[in-house]
Amino acid sequence: MIVVRNLWKNYGDQVVLERLNLTVKEGEFCSMVGASGCGKSTFLRLLLGQEQATRGEILLDGQPLPAEPDAHRGVVFQRYSVFDHLSVLRNVMLGLELPRAKFTGRLFGAQRRAARDEAAAMLERVGLGAALNKYPQQLSGGMQQRLAIAQALMMKPRVLLLDEPFGALDPGIRKDMHGLLSELWRESKLTIFMVTHDLKEGFTLGSRVLVFDKVRADPQAPGAYGARITYDIPLDRTRESASALHIAQAAMQGASKIELVSD
Amino acid sequence: MRLINRHPGRTGGLMLLLLPFVVLLVVYFAGSSMRLAANPDDKLLPSATQMSDAMRSAAFTEDKRTGEYLLWADTSSSLRRLGIGLIVSAVIALATALATGSFPLASATLSPFITVISMVPPLAVLPILFIVFGLDELSKVVLIVVGITPMIIRDLHARAGEIPAELWVKAQTLGANSWTLILRLVLPQLLPRLLVAMRLSLGAAWLFLIAAEAIASTDGLGYRIFLVRRYLSMDMILPYVAWITLLAWLTDELLRRLTQWCFPWYGGGAR
Fold first, then answer.
1. Are A155 and B172 a contacting pair at CB < 8 A?
2. To which CATH superfamily is domain A26-50+65-72+157-263 assigned?
3. pTM of the predicted protein model
């Protein structure tokens, strides 16, 4: 479904990603892990259309990705994912209103009531049924991320992109969110890309783990070489074979070493 | 305890709040009575009775020439000019900032231009306004607009830049086109900031209003002050200045409450 061919991304002289090749099938959950600054968030922004590749291409169903964000790709950021000037319900309704009302950006009458009910049902599903009329600032961090996920899912996107969605949450809340996300993924058969710093999170949630790392490094010119996907680990969640686990552990050790060096 | 950690209590706070006002009044009236004791015809520091007499005749006695109550006539014409000026400035500034804040192409064209224009001293172009728009109402309103609009535009443009990039992307993933994105994201985000920018421009707006009225006008608070200056009528000037101050403070307070009331999500409106 998504094919990445020989992708490069430079910022001026600095090469962030080099020679990236990847094929992702529909319904896969790709966790992307790696040291800070190794280009996993950049790759996510390329998938989103927020930035353009320097060389190479990303194909969605054989077509090049549009050069700007659109309704086929949902996104949840670590922060600022929801509109603080709209109530919880309005935040979720927005995704129903914008594509249908090209001039007013709002729905009226029966359409509005239908959108309201649909949004309320979605919020109920992510556990925000009791907070429909609150403003996002009145919600805790975990609740805000639930809202952001509900808002993104409302669009029924082909691809859901998550940029460290749970990075700012404390461990208990994080676990609840993992449960919620796994459940939503299994129900909807979405294709998900998730950037995370937390290796364990990447391995628990993903059906496939992509490790980003620099293969080559020139101490005299740190920006001369970019990162690639060094490990591509398919995880069979139902029947975890010993070999997969072995590779995973090796990769985790490798990646954590990088983490140490970069700190 | 360190001084930086000492906070006033409830009554203490109220007393501290009133203190500078009380000191100002005490110093004034002490000086006034000393000068009046030395010379009963002194006009520089009039007593409370003299000021209230002057104000009573301005507020509650018909003017012999025009048949109007001067204070109210002056107040209403000044407030009308100020109000029209503020609203026109707000509309122009909002429309411009929506364009420059949302479209990089508009920003590339207009932002440097507006920065240069905002450096033109408004009072220096006042003669031009009088020549072009004549000496009546229009030129006074235009002076206010010319004086405060560029600053409000620059402020709003900066505020539009503060809308997180994440929200722009998010709105696009929710299916917004350029127009609906402005309508549902940029406009509601900028409206409370517009009210804040208007509050900050109030001082400048009053300045330009009084300057225009002082130079060419037949009524208005600024006109009256500059008129009675010829007779050294401090008993009239001082209460007028106090009245203008009160009006300015009330306008500011009104805009603050409006922000709080219309945009409860916006930082409590306290900023």
1. no
2. P-loop containing nucleotide triphosphate hydrolases (3.40.50.300)
3. 0.84
